[in-house]
Design goal:
alpha+beta, Nuclear Transport Factor 2, Chain: A, 4 helices, phosphoprotein, glycoprotein, secreted, Cystatin_Fetuin_A
Amino acid sequence: MRSLVLVLCLAQLWGCHSAPHGPGLGYRELNCDDPETEQAALVAVDYINSHLLRGYKHTLNQIDKVKVWPRRPMGEVFEIEIDTLETTCHALDPTPVANCSVRQLQEHAVEGDCDFRVLKQDGQFSVLFAKCDSSPDSAEDVLKVCPDCPLLAPLNDTRVVHAVEAALAAFNARNNGSYYQLVEVSRAQLVPFPVSTYVEFVVAATDCVSKEVTDPAKCNLLAEKQYGFCKARLTGKFGGEDVAVTCVVFQTQPVLPQPQPEGTNSPTPAETSAKPLSPPANLPAATVVVGPLVAAAPPPSLPVHRAHYDLRHAFAGVASVESASGEAFLVEKAPTVVQPGVAVAAGPVVRPCPGRIRHFKI
């Protein structure tokens, strides 16, 4: 009899462990479009953009899942999955992401997929864990929307490299201020008609004057980094090629940690003169933006034939995002939470997640 009782107890214990999670079994559920969920998601997106080393800023597109776990001694942890979309603003562009345009499907859009744990304590949100990756839309889907639209090209394609070099040379030739050096090739597309190469790239000012440069290798990047973002198109024609390039220069970025000056959010057209600023210094391979501060960081290891900068490299060189105290959130018994407007009675239940799509689905 005792053996039978023991078997029954073990069976009940196993049933408890194998039961699916739900309200009252460790976490509470929120609707993916709940304002509190969206607030946590926006903090996650800000975290992505503040730690981007290269490529483009991302914006929130959809919240896929959310669970809210209690955390001892206080606070809650939002375990959240989100989808993002690449914008047209470069990572170094000071424009707030809310003011950045989302790259459209016909431009070969890029989608991000991220997992976050965000702590809410005393009404404040902070990121405990972040993991992301991103990928361009499939070629088939792009061509369905726009059969003649160009697709993303490898950034090391010889035609891309030549177009960037020609565009930068053309820009420096007509620039009356600093001589600019290439920092990053950000995006490229091979346009079928008219046959041309479209590129976007990042440059930085040096201590040389553009009109006086005889040996570019002797030019050094400024101590206070002044980056520019360029768009160019190289079109082949009989007897030569035509280059069209426009650049915008952003505010200077100090290497040493110090507050950014206020009122410096507006970029200035690079067609105007750019004055050398400070004694020369070598440009760090990348920068990490931590709040209002800028610090040097090692370059991530990137695939050679990449066509975009994958978000999985966004946090390379960034200190661990786990809680500084080493304190992890604890799974504990939570009270049953009934969502407002969701019937408890038997019948079909409307799933609160995934949430609404803010732009478009890839």
